[in-house]
Structure to design on (255 residues):
């Protein structure tokens, strides 16, 4: 049963890249390349400034829209922030929450990830909750402890129904942007551990339905072997999502 009921999700995290015109050029090319893709959910996550134009560009396509972050409050005196209702309004279906770069550079914590997750869910946005250990943590044998705190902290207080709207992205920090991908076995080990955590916290049935993406130097060449792992249900792609051809090739390689 496992693996057969989960549709793989390939998401492109564009990070701090692409002006509006560059973003539209990318999705215009991408749309044509993935028009026939089936059995895979395709997502792009542009910067806030390009969301509206990309939303228009992909309106009649099989590509979904995500934001790269969200604030936990809906409105008010929070200068510089963007809320879940605003993201819904611009056409987002998903939002990336707790990316390691936000944890590292912008003070994101398990608590803020949890608040943002709840805000997203309250407005029918699907959170892509990012978890992952740093190199020193892996070398110190702390991978499972870190993953456990990221996962349980991020989803604290969610009902099973809410959890079913969430995606988890396992992104070992040492693999992000380094060209050093986790081996399929390393990814599978942590994905299986995450599914075990969800089984304990909810049930095997709930856990078996949650999509767990891998992220960290995913490229067309390594996609198939990662996705072949029983608990790897897609990819969160940074660098290789910035070119239509390489991102489309990744989509192709999961089918
Ligand atoms: P990368 O980034 O594919 O460039 O390693 C992945 C991510 O940070 O989501």
């Amino acid at each position: 049963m496992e693996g057969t009921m989960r549709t793989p999700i390939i998401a492109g995290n564009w990070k701090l890249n692409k002006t509006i015109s560059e973003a539209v050029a990318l999705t215009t090319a991408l749309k044509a390349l993935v028009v026939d893709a089936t059995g895979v959910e395709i997502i792009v996550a542009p910067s806030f400034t390009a969301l509206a134009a990309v939303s228009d560009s992909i309106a009649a396509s099989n590509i979904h829209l995500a934001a790269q972050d969200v604030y936990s409050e809906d409105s008010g005196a929070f200068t510089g922030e963007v809320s879940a209702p605003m993201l819904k309004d611009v056409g987002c279906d998903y939002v990336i929450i707790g990316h390691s770069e936000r944890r590292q550079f912008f003070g994101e914590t398990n608590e803020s990830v949890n608040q943002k997750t709840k805000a997203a869910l309250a407005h029918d946005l699907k959170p892509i909750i990012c978890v992952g250990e740093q190199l020193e943590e892996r070398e110190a044998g702390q991978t499972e402890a870190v993953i456990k705190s990221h996962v349980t902290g991020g989803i604290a207080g969610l009902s099973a129904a809410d959890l079913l709207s969430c995606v988890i992205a396992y992104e070992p920090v040492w693999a992000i942007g380094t060209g050093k991908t986790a081996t399929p076995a390393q990814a599978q080990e942590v994905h299986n551990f995450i599914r075990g955590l969800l089984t304990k916290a909810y049930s095997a049935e709930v856990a078996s339905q949650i999509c767990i993406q891998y992220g960290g130097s995913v490229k067309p060449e390594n996609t198939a072997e990662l996705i072949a792992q029983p608990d790897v249900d897609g990819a969160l792609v940074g660098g290789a999502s910035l070119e239509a051809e390489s991102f489309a090739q990744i989509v192709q390689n999961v089918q």
About this structure: The pocket of 2-phosphoglycolic acid is lined by residues 13, 171, 176-177, 215-218, 236-240 (CB under 6 Å).
